[in-house]
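Supplementary Methods S3. Input chains for the assembly prediction are listed below.
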Amino acid sequence: MATTDREEQTGGGVEEWRRRYEVTPERKGELFSTISGVENEPLYSPENVELDYERDLGWPGAYPFTRGVYPSMYRGRLWTMRQFAGFGTAEETNARFRYLLDHGQTGLSTAFDMPTLMGYDSDHARSLGEVGREGVAIDSLGDMETLFDGIPLGEVSTSMTINGPAAMLLAFYACVGEEQGVALDRLRGTVQTDILKEYIAQKEWIFPPQPSMRLVVDMVEWCSERLPLMHPVSISGYHIREAGSNAAQELAFTLSNGFALVEACLERGLDVDAFAPRLSFFFNAHLDFFEEIAKYRAARRIWARQMREKYGAQDPRSWLMRFHTQTAGVSLTAQQPEVNLIRTAIEALAAVLGGTQSLHTNSFDEALALPTEHAVRLALRTQQVIAHETGVVNTIDPLGGSYYLEQLTTELESQAYDYFERIEELGGVIPAIEQNFQQREIAEASFRYQSEVERGERVVVGVNRYQQEDEQPIELLRIDPALEQKQVERVQAVRASRDSAAAAAALARLKEDAAHEDRNLMEPIMDASRAYVTMGEMCDALREVWGTWRETPVF
Amino acid sequence: MAGKIRVVVAKPGLDGHDRGAKIIARALRDAGMEVIYTGLHQTPEQIVETAIQEDADAVGISILSGAHMTLVPRILELLRENGVEDVVVVVGGTIPDDDADELRKLGVAGVFGPGAPTTDIVDFIRGAVPA
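Predicted structure tokens for the full assembly:
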């Protein structure tokens, strides 16, 4: 190394640094902005960041929760390792659940197949070819009994990714609890039930927004009275991100959906502190490491401030945002799939450094198919390595105070507030959805990212750089097509063997009550479930009363 | 070429994953094609009806639900039954290699997996649609 000017090493401040920085030309080609397009300075220092420690960060477990929702965070208890699973019929998925519990998983998470998500029984014409393909097929209480066979519901917490027919699936679960002799107030878990993000992103809806929201509020109300340990709604940004949004949109649309739900519950006359502590959240963990950590911290701060300042919540538990995280499916590549292990590990680390309460790590083969047991085990091991080998759990919010991270947290927060204003100007979340606002914003961001990749401004290893010819195919999970027929026979057997008069009466009552907006539908749905009325039959009854939803597609 | 290439971009089945379909639709439009996007949750019958009504040169089917071996053959069959022989059918999504081979045998012109550049798809359709 050549001799260095002594003065350059010892002083001159930021101007001097900038002068020296500019001596070396920046690399050309790749963008320096975040994946979401937030511009990054080459360096952050006290000059870029304006923070009031007590006001903006505070202490873990205390308002505004920027540094975490619990005073002890992972020194008290690690996050829940919760791998999402489901395929075939209830029998296959029950076996996978037991496998995961045997390997140290601490919570269950159920993936349902497309017909279940859309409210069709497995023998419906529209279900053909889709049964058990992307998740487990659950048509009636009978299937739910099989799904949790040998799994004591009083001892596990179960997450269910279900939205349109969430009320029916929660009722099936509660009925299995009853059958196992577990009191309803001991059932723990989370039902996704976030219908607003379905219209925006995941697109598995049944009814129009208004009656859908009524059913969601029915669940919130019923759970606060009967299932106090259940999270009746998981307000989800995951799917918004998977649909192509950027981080700021994920943050903004998720939180605005959350506030819309709070407003719907308040309109029902519920006390904010009676339901808000049970609301939970679900975010994506994408690859832009610091941006993701900033997103979680901004989310906690915004939620706390709005719940306290705008919605008048008094109970501190109403202010704190607890969330589940899943690594980004959209970041996985079909090319050189083993490389996905590395992507997922980095994403999972961001989720942990962002203070997640539970985590799903994707399996490396998921750009190609549902994961094999081998791939799922490696995904779970990734979390275990982070938890037990890296040391990142030893200190709370270890990146707090980083000039860069704090500035990025503030930047994302400010972008979210801009979106809140734009949504407000359109009349609120549902009117904005009806005008395709969120859908259009996501499509724009998604196309912009794709264009950046195609121009080589964003490098995706193995896809647009470092490609490999002659890749060896990896072993994939194949769903046996015979399972569809087996499930069709199961649902038909349920219909044939039940007390048909009792089933018809329960269904008639559900329909009658659905026509009266002031009636909570959860007890009628529980009664119908006990009578083995199927999920599809209940949804059909509600379709007759409420109609269905169709979007005007934009691209 | 006489006129713009007309492409129907279709989402069959119950699958709600529309990120890819929308990107492709936009890339085809930006490349000068006339794009008709069906929207979600279409039956094979609806897709074929749209293809006929729109006098499509090509149909792009986006499917990520694993139901491709049921839905795509049904679309091909309905096209044949309706005497539509000259439309170019391409499929995109999470399609395992074995299934992609099978779909090609059944008459699909091209299968594009995750990570395929939109420019490849544009070029493929331009090459496959008779001038």
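The first strand of chain A starts at residue 80 and ends at 81. The beta strands of chain A are 80-81, 84-85, 108-111, 157-161, 188-191, 230-231, 234-236, 280-285, 323-327, 358-360.
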